Amino acid sequence: MAEVADPAQALPAVRHAEEVMGTVVSFDVRGGEAAAVQTALEEAIAQLHVVDAVFSTFKENSQISRLGRGELTVDDCDPEVAEVLELCAEAERLSDGWFSTKYAGVVDPTGLVKGWSVERAARHLMAAGASGVSVNGGGDVQLLGTPGPERPWRVGVSDPLRPGSLAAVVSAAGADELAIATSGSAERGVHIVDPGTGKSAVTDLVAVTVVSPRLTWADAWATAAFAMGARHALSWLESLPDVEALLITAGDEVRCTGGLGARLG
Question: Which of 26, 32, 65, 257 would give a disulfide with 37, using CB separation of 3.0 to 4.6 Å?
Answer without folding.
Answer: 32
